[in-house]
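anyone seen this seq b4? input:
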Amino acid sequence: MGNWFQQNIIATGRLPLFCYFVALIVSFVATRINVRLIRAKVGWFRDVNVGEMHIHHVVFGVVLMLVGGVTGLIVSSASQVSYAAAASIFGIGSALVLDEFALILHLHDVYWEEEGRTSVDAVFVAVAVAGLLLIGLRPLTWDYGTPVNPAVLIVANLALAVVTLLKGKIWTGLVGLFVPVLLVVGAFRLARPGSPWAHWFFVGRSPRKMAKAIHREERWRRPVITAKIAFQEFVSGRHDLPSTRRGRRLP
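predicted toks r here
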């Protein structure tokens, strides 16, 4: 194990990324344990308040990200260990910010509401991207051993990624940036019924395709979503409060 770590992490210059990856996961899990204990009113676990103002942990996350980011810029030419320490601080801050991503998105505290699952999705995406980078994959890679101009391949990958994302296939689009063959599959498969692509090209234009998309969603996608939500709630707790966002608009 020691030899593997030396050869694949330290020798390849990935120690800072590894530290960021570990700090992100550990900090997210620790944060979720903490907030679940606060919600259950266990022991001395309480929210942080200044007077009547509740201080969300996204505030501490922003501060830590600034500290880690600036420190990383300062020590980038120093030792890999110093850079790794800055990356760890940045990873802790990232976990705190992404854990309240839904609050930033909605400008409203939806932490334990259904919309709050967006925060968990954001953390899972960050972990997945960092993990793919850690194993050596790079987004929009162009070295396919073909005579095609690299710029053309990059533009083609981006175009396929945009189409895939517009079809509502978020994970396929993101992972496809690292594994381009997935973009080809995602771009040419039927769009999800709630996606922008379906709204533009299926509604009122192709009822047959919309019906087929809905059938696939109910038969194949729903069980996957149900399993994903179950796993999310196992990790992060149940988002079971009634939504306060439906029908509410910001001024």
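The chain has a mean pLDDT of 89. Residues 61 and 93 are 4 Å apart (CA to CA). kinda curious what u guys think
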